[in-house]
């Protein structure tokens, strides 16, 4: 489902297996557990860490587990199941926004819907250029965006034309176009190279030995609307983002 390893001062979370890495309750819980381990181990260590998320196979993540939601037997039951996934994924965004170290997504395959959101939760995004695309499928399948999805996209997609293409055209955006639109930072040849570069970038950032608490505080202060949307800061309290422990 997922694995966590430590390469020097870089924690590497990998979504394992050749499937679509659909974000169901079990995978979401496993990712949150891994992030909790990263937080605890970094707090006990000397400081100066970084975090990378990658995935095996042709998908980074194809979003929520819609097959599970739709197997509920009725439209209302399916919507209730999907709402439960929306609710339990929200703390992952909070976890990553408050993680006390630089974070990098190594997008090693297709990243759609919640998988796209998982990628742009990170401070930096590297993506393979030989295959894969970013895609918000909600318009095509007739689903509204959760408010915190919109807050995340507004925070991380600065160009309003790029945001329009993502949310109002349901565009499938390959790596080169995503870099041009400012959605991702780097494009690399294939999956292995993308992960290698992300880890190397993590090593360079970790070597700065920044104070993790200060780093997380500055990150949260940079994105107050998103922090409010995922429960890290109260309305009107932008200057004092709450910690995950206090809110979740």
Automatic annotation (TrEMBL):
Keywords: Lipid metabolism. It comes from the Eukaryota. InterPro entries: ClpP/crotonase-like_dom_sf, Enoyl-CoA_hydra/iso. It catalyses: a (3Z)-enoyl-CoA = a 4-saturated (2E)-enoyl-CoA; a (3E)-enoyl-CoA = a 4-saturated (2E)-enoyl-CoA. One of its GO terms (cellular component) is peroxisome. The keyword Thylakoid does not apply. Pathway: Lipid metabolism; fatty acid beta-oxidation. GO terms for molecular function: delta(3)-delta(2)-enoyl-CoA isomerase activity. CDD domains: crotonase-like. Signal peptide: none annotated. Its EC number is 5.3.3.8. One of its GO terms (biological process) is fatty acid beta-oxidation. Belongs to the enoyl-CoA hydratase/isomerase family. This is Delta(3)-Delta(2)-enoyl-CoA isomerase. It comes from Phoenix dactylifera.
């Amino acid at each position: 489902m997922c694995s966590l390893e430590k390469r020097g001062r870089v924690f590497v979370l990998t979504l394992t297996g050749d499937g679509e890495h659909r974000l169901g309750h079990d995978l979401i819980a496993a990712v949150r557990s891994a992030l909790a381990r990263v937080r605890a181990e970094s707090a006990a260590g000397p400081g100066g860490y970084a975090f990378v998320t990658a995935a095996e196979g042709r998908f980074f993540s194809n979003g929520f587990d819609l097959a599970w939601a739709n197997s509920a037997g009725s439209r209302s039951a399916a919507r209730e199941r999907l709402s439960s996934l929306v609710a339990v994924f929200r703390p992952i965004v909070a976890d990553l926004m408050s993680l006390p170290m630089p974070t990098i997504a190594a997008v090693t395959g297709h990243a759609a819907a919640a998988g796209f959101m998982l990628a742009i939760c990170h401070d930096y995004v590297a993506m393979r250029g030989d295959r894969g695309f970013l895609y918000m499928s909600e318009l095509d399948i007739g689903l509204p965006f959760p408010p915190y999805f919109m807050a995340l996209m507004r925070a991380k997609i600065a160009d309003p034309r790029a945001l329009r293409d993502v949310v109002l055209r349901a565009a499938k955006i390959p790596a080169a176009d995503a870099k041009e639109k400012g959605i991702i930072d780097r494009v690399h040849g294939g999956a292995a190279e993308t992960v290698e570069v992300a880890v190397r970038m993590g090593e360079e950032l970790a070597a700065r030995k920044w104070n993790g608490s200060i780093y997380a505080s500055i990150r949260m202060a940079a994105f107050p609307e998103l922090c409010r949307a995922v429960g890290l800061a109260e309305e009107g309290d932008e200057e004092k983002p709450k910690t995950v422990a206090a809110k979740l």
